[in-house]
Amino acid sequence: MDRTQGQSEQPEQPTGGSGPVRPGAPTTSATPAAAGPARVVSLTAGGFALTVNPVDGSEIEPLRPGTEPARPAKRDAAARAARATAARPPVLPGPAVPAPPLRAREEELERLVRLLGRGRSVRLTGPSGSGRSALLDAVAGRCAGLAPDGVVRLSGYGQQQPGELLHALYATVYAAERERPARTELLARVREIGAVVLLDDLEMGGTALDELMRATPECAYLLAATPDTRAPSDDSHIEEVFLGGLGKADCLELLEAGLGRPLTDEETAWAGDLRFASEGLPLRFVQAAALLRQRDELNHSDEDDEEEEPGVFEERPRDAVHVPLPTLAEGAAPAELLASRVSESARAALRIACALGGELPHHAHLPALVGDTHADTAVAELLACGLLTPVGTRYRLASGVARQLEEVGYGVTASEEARTAARHYAWWTGHSSVVPERVAAEADAVLTALAGADVVAAVLLARTAAPAFAASLHWEAWERVLRSGAEAARKAGEVAEQAYFHHELGVLALCEERLDRARAELETSIGLRGALADKRGTVAGRRALALVVDRETAGASPPLRLEAPAAPAAASEAVTVATPATPAPRSAAAPRVAPSSASAPSSTPSGASAPAAPAASEASTTRVPPVAPAVPVSAEAVTRMTPVVPVTGRSETPATLSEVFEDAFPLDPKPAPPAAPRSAAAPAQAPGRRRLVLLAGAGALVVVALGTAVSLALSSSDSEPPAQSPAVSSTPTVAAPDTTAVTSGNDPAPEPPVSAPPAETPEPGQSAAPTPGRSPARTPSRRPSSTPPTNSTPTTSVSPTQTSAQPSPTVTETITPTPSATATQTGTTTSAGSPVTGD
Fold it and tell me: Residue 688 has what pLDDT?
């Protein structure tokens, strides 16, 4: 990309094809012009053929028979070396920056190489700035021939799950372009990899790290992590190597190597104090060497500058100002002092990095972002000062630099810088001349700019960057940018863009076999596009949703069915058989049953045999055949659960409301089914069973008669004459009349003779009329007591009114207090026992 250094670059791919395009190649329909916004890329994702379409959304379909990709081959040593070189940070314009020497790490280096040669995995733990990356570079040079698949360099920055790391390992070892295997195939392929994996900036531990180690049993890992990273589990058997600070002598040698001259006594004492304050971290002495170089430049310590006479128009004053050594606080936190002495373009790049969360864009973007054509040289200047550190294929601010710069005001314009970066990346990622791999290398900067941009810029950036991340197989960044874009589109009210993002999320979930998530996202997208009348997008969404349904059907388990368990014939436990709650189609031979009996389930007492029920009991129970054929139960008591809706014999589904009501509430009762034949296993009824039932009924009638007699005696003995009624006296003249009670035709049959105490007659001087306002405890019997009539007292009129067929009719007793004491009798008997009929 850098044209100033005379480096020849390969022409970038104008479209999303798999191979490079010659500069003079004609443009065809398959390779649109470079100015066109569309960049269509075809991928293989598991068992699907994925076409990344930036216009209408990605299209996914199953692989056709015969088009499955062949087994990928492993890369040779030359291909691995070329890929490892491409994975290193880019070469910066300007003079080459010498790498700091590796000091006092020979012992750790020998131990790491020895452990890796034995196939052991090692965790190299050290604080930020301790030189872990430099030690990994030295280990990579010593372990090149230890494993059959060589040395693989990976970056674990921002990786919390092992999935993306496994895919990166697969893409490094296997020559599989435009192919992302499914999880099953991925695990089978990485299990065959035998390499020394150097994983820098590890951020995961525990079970996630165990999963990574189990998936690659033939690999030896060197994991570089900070002390605050989660530790591995106890069962991982990973060796621990701690990387501490340097000694005083090593710190002085590192400082002299960076300064390029011997130290003075004052500088040596200052370096000793700095070593005590910084615990001997190599990064602090790289920054300290940059501070001393800047001090030398300001003091013009070179002899040539001292001999030259300043000119008239030179801005440098004639009397040089002596710049003292930095203080110990400035040496421990040198970011502010170092940034104040670099160029303006470098300071602008630092402001952009602070706005992007520490991520520094590629040096080719700095001229456009800063506004200076020579701003690309700022990266080398900042790297020489120790303000940047390499992370994978990019650079970011060193540990603690972002915090120190934000404290002095470099984060004031963060929102404006983020919006500027978002608009620039939206144009760059959407340009057809930029290959997806270039966009994937800037993934962290793009995602950070997307998070800090306004909703309009965020929607545009997510819309252009999402297809590039998908085509580059960097699917973790693809998912993150899709979710951010969907949220920004929702806030901006862009329904069409929101539907696109949900469609892409559904396709991504389908490729990763997350069917529930795929269904939810695709249904949301189809609904939004249906509201917009987007026919083409709706068809694409429905095709993807059909694949989800097919996958769910293929992987669904059969429904759970409840059946009567098979048990021995002697078992006496009750079994509940589940029957369907919806009307089921009835065969032609099945009898029609009364729907009114559906709400009365039949039950048989537990522990008894199940005899054949009579026809009357069959009519009160609706039996529905179970979903699955039940096991024959002979001696078990079965409780059948009947449906709530009555099941009728209608073969077709009711079409009108009247037919539904006719099925639920029939006008004419359906004939009851014939009684089931008596099972041979059912025992015969005992001969004395009917006699016991009759005796029990007779006993019940005796109890009713006794209760009636006792209640009548209590009510007659407790009655008192009314207080306000006229004085009526009833004095019988016959003490023991010989009367015979005659019953009417409406009375029930006479009760069987039982031994019961005779009814008590009221004593002389007591009135037979009830007390007003006081009701008797029980309803009196219909047989009134015989009382001889008198001429001087009112006669009690008893009218046995038959209201229903109940055993105890209601007896009405009325007393008419008249001066003439005239009595009206209905249905009474005379003293001689003959009935008297009153008009």
Answer: 54
pLDDT for 656: 66
Phi-psi region of 274 (alpha: psi -120 to 50; beta: other; left: phi over 0): alpha
Nearest CA among 128, 118, 121 for reference residue 233: 121
Long-range contacts of 698-705 (CB under 8 A, 24+ apart): 698/752, 698/754, 701/751, 701/752, 701/754, 702/754, 702/756, 704/807, 705/751, 705/754, 705/756
Taking the C-alpha atoms of residue 639 and residue 575, their distance in angstroms, rounded to an integer, is: 6
Q: Residue 22's CB: how many other CB atoms inside 10 A? A: 8
Residue 484 in contact with residue 458, Cβ under 8 Å?
yes
Residue numbers of the chain with a pLDDT score lower than 50: 1-37, 302-305, 556-565, 567-622, 624-625, 627-647, 679-685, 717-749, 752-839
Cα–Cα distance measured from residue 397 to residue 359, given in angstroms and rounded to the nearest whole number:
7
pLDDT tens digits, residue range 447-464? Answer: 999 998 999 999 999 999
Residue 30 and residue 480 in contact, taking contact as beta carbons nearer than 8 Å: no
**Distance separating alpha carbons of residues 363 and 95, to the nearest angstrom:** 15
Please report the pLDDT score of residue 71 as a whole number. Answer: 87
pLDDT of residue 66: 84
CA nearest neighbour of 463 among 426, 490, 494, 434: 426
- State residue 704 phi and psi, 5-degree precision: -65, -45
| Mean pLDDT taken over the chain | 73
Element (H, E) at 198: strand 196-200
Encode pLDDT of 168-189 as tens digits: 999 999 998 889 999 999 999 9
Give the C-alpha separation, 674 to 723, whole Å.
67
Half-sphere exposure of 500 (CA within 13 A, CB side): 23
Q: How many CA atoms lie within 13 A of 111 on its CB side?
A: 12
In angstroms, the CA 530 to CA 269 distance is 75
Distances in Å between the Cα of 247 and the Cα atoms of 253, 260, 399 are 10, 20, 21
Structure tokens at 765: 């001087």
CA distance 122 to 114: 11
With 0.85 as the threshold, say if the pTM is over it.
no
Q: Write down the pLDDT at residue 670.
A: 53
Number of Cβ within a 10 Å radius of residue 739? 16
Provide the strand spans (E) within 632-727. Answer: 638-640
Dist CA 784 CA 814 (whole Å): 13
Cα gap 612→609, rounded to integer Å: 10
The pair of three-digit structure tokens given for residue 789, joined into one six-digit string: 């009539």
CB 316 within 8 A of CB 165: no
